[in-house]
Amino acid sequence: MFFSKRNIQFNLYEVLQSEALTQYEYFQDHTRESFDMVLDAAQQIAEKMLHPLLIEMDRKEPQLVDGKIRVHPGMKAIVQQFGQDGWINAGFSYNEGGQQLPVTILNAAAFIFQAANYSASVFPFLTTGAANLIRSFGAQPLIDTYTPKMYSGEWQGTMALTEPNAGSSLSDITTSAEPTSEEGVYKIKGQKIFISCGDHDVCENVVHLMLAKIKGGPLGAKGISLFVVPRQRPDANGNLTPNDVITAGVYHKMGYKGAPIAHLMIGSNDACEGYLVGEAHKGLSYMFQMMNEARIGVGINATAIGTAAYYASLAYAKERPQGRKITEKDPSKPQTSIINHADVKRMLLFQKAVVEGAFSLLMYCSHLADVAHVAEGETSTNAHLLLDLLTPIAKSYPSEMCCLSTSAAVQILGGAGYTTDFPVEQYYREARIHPIHEGTTGIHGLDLLGRKITMQQGKAAQLFFAEVSNTITDASGIEALSPLAVQLQKVLGQAQQLTGYLLGLAQKGNTEKYLSDATLYLELFGLVTIAWQWLKQAVVAQQQLAGAHTADKDFYQGKILTARYFYEYELVKAASLIKRLSSTDEVTIEMQADWF
Predict the structure, then answer these.
(1) What's the pLDDT tens digit per position in 251-266?
(2) Are residues 144 and 232 located together in one domain of the fold?
(3) What is the distance between the alpha carbons of residues 205 and 334, in angstroms, rounded to a whole number?
(4) Which domain covers residue 211, as residue numbers?
């Protein structure tokens, strides 16, 4: 068991009431039954194709052979299956061959794939993001040439941003684009590093959505344009010709080893063609669509890995006998399973609190994406604003905390957890990439405090605080949950007051002080957000408890106790963060490089 279908159903149908999405015309052909069929199909693929290769893909990582990256041979059938079943374009319109599925349902299915085998799940969904950029901003000839074979899984899609010395600082990229005599066609020259699935032998072609600067354009981020740069370019008859995109190397990673990460040299022989997507110099704004989708995706990835680790350590804790209960002194009595020790239950509760709290937030963000897409007027606008605000938290909280939760899984297994005989060491390694890619945690802290809190005169933050307050009101009327409501109300008020203090620093021009601890502000915001999600879950669980059958009663009791755990063990950490963020001590600013 590497995930809980019951927890998915609880979030989709009891907390979010996702069936209500079918009231919108775009989703009207779907029902609860069709949603369940999608999730069942995802589970079958995950169990039969992805999970069996989890460890083997980790042990037999990609290799660069004769200028081509070779990956696990089992990936070919997996990518073909995703293409044949329509997963790659399932959320797109019927006119494009899609199924008009809600993002909420697709992300729940993606979570199942990622919990089964993160590396394997990356290939098709990178293509989804790349194809979505082409269909959103590209001219019709580009759409017609590239997206059908991307949807079918015949061609891989990537996001090619990062360069040496220009990781998060995209304004410093040096890959260049020079116009040719043919409109929309440019000569591309440069290099890209850390490109996920940037080259492999599963698909016949790789289509890079690449950032580059047109010569003579504006400096910095304003001069960035977006191009389709295929590894092989198709002619009018569909024949493929090498496009001067050379694989210079493959990175051998700490985890996430089954998916290749390529170093690409572009235009070394002055023979690489790129095709402009949309308007010149607007590439970064276009790419942010894919990046924001990917950031929610990274949060789901991290949560899925953390969830798989949680269930692995839970199974071990139920089976592993060790010692006796503290109150039992008789050595002749049999040993007890370690799950009966309070400290082991604490570590399991920590994992459950992190992964199920994060999953709740990610499904909520997915729901907001659906509402923003299909609703109208203020409803759509508010959903979009809330999603923008919550994206840094939805990416960073799971990414950071699942490093800690997978560590707890290793700890529960003890020495066994440190060996390759059990999968938790692999989950621990695979979790660590997520605070880094698609924007480091520090970048997301700056994004939250420097941009999202202040956008539209703070309207998004006001919407967030109102949503949390509504949940607090709901919980206040339930005797068992009213202490949690009181606790969250107090922390929420302190967070609002702190936000006002920090914004005051910005207004006074003290920008460095304002943003110096943005990462800690992100951490605080994450605690408040996940506490809110747990209170939402607890409210539903408490309401459902009375009429529930035995198995569901256990499930709901587990939700309520985990919510209590989060407030007792995690939300209390907010006090120290608020104290630090309110302090006038500027130690990190005053420290000099030479003093280290």
Answers:
(1) 999 999 999 999 999 9
(2) no
(3) 61
(4) 156-281
